[in-house]
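TEACHING EXERCISE
Course module: macromolecular assemblies
Task: Read the component lines below, then compare them to the predicted structure of the full complex.
Student: A.B.
Group: 4
Components provided:
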Amino acid sequence: MKLTAQQIEKLYAFTKQHYVEYYDLQTELVDHLANGIELQWQENPKLTFREALDIEFKKYGIFGFSDLVEERQKAMSKTYYKLVFRLVKQYFTFPRIMQTLFFILTLYMVLKFIPYKENVVLGLMISVLIFVFYSSFKWRRLISRRKKEKQKIWMYEEIVYSCGSSLGIFQLMIQIPIQILSSHRSSSFLSTETGVIFAAIFVVGFAVFAYVLTIEIPKNAKEYIAKVHPEYKII
Amino acid sequence: MSNSKLYKGSLITIILKLLSENDKMYGYEITQKVKALTKGELNITEGALYPALHKLEADGVLEVEVTKVDNRLRKYYKLTEKGTTETANKLSELQKYIETMQALVNSKTRLA
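Instructor-supplied answer key:
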């Protein structure tokens, strides 16, 4: 005996009730539960749908699906960071390296000849940071609205649009210039040739990282999501 | 054996081996196949299987495909090119391990 479309819908609702809010993981679990229920019906046709489902769910242990969600999030984040790394790397290899070098050189020239270099470096980094926070906030709001409206949410989609958990990395990265510049050697650091070169490379690298996370990946998000979730295109 | 921790480290090798013999498989099919092959001796739990599959997918060892079967969607896993190489390595590692264990278990050391 096979499950009806209505029973499949019930299984989707069941996974949602048990804190699986991502459609991709729901789909995989629904198929697994459905196979288990159908096998039980072969052995004992008298079982009701609910009884068979309860037996199947017990196999997931006392934590139910929560460990699966957590583990999948870890795996998806790994996929995401691989993508980020690949895209950021492109800016430092041919042919894009010329463009990156141009930005580094321009910033180097500017920093070399202006006073208050520390403030300019910090100002630039804080502007980039504000932009990243704003973009991430905008997408997070959109996702939470869709959750409220009970629309389908894809795990990788959420990771891509909310820039993974990179905001922590950004906060960490901005600590580096703050620490350097707030130390009493700051003025001497940026007055050296090495200091200016380091600052120019660091700020441009920071901006490239931010650009990839907030503009480049979300721009092609659908393509990346469909690669990870093939069902994204079927639905 | 179903509660044994012995097979935990071999779960990935088991999955890869099965996928190398079948073009593509879905989660439930893997659990059933292992049960059948080991005559019920080995029971892969859902809580261990899916995290392993998702990790292999993130590592680029497996790729996925989704097809509509009956009235639901089914996610199939299959080996990538990298996965095929990985399978050969993992299998030879496991084979070596089994041989070492056999040598240890079967050795007739005498305590003087």
